[in-house]
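Progress report, Aim 2. The chain analyzed during this reporting quarter is listed below.
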Amino acid sequence: MILKFESIYLYVSELTTMKQVLLVSAITYFLICLYFGTQWLIFARRNLNSTPEEVFLSFTVLLLVTIFSPLAIPFYYYQIFKKRKLNSSEDRRQKAEG
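Predicted structure tokens for the chain:
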């Protein structure tokens, strides 16, 4: 058991800082999704007044949020990066003209 943890530690320590941040972020996201999903399932099981259609929609929303939220965040950061890149190129052009 100790040997496995040491090999994981050695693997993580060889990664660059950016890759370590991405790995921690991915693990954190997975744990949050797991917790959120279990809480959602517990809530859905307790709510006995739900119709089968409501239960189906509830699980569909849970599935869609779990799948698409990791895609939405990088897309949002891409938009910010693109805007900053455009702003910085305009600033350089204005400094060159002025």
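The chain has three helices and no strands. Residues 52-97 form the longest helix (46 residues). These observations will guide the mutagenesis work planned for the next reporting period.
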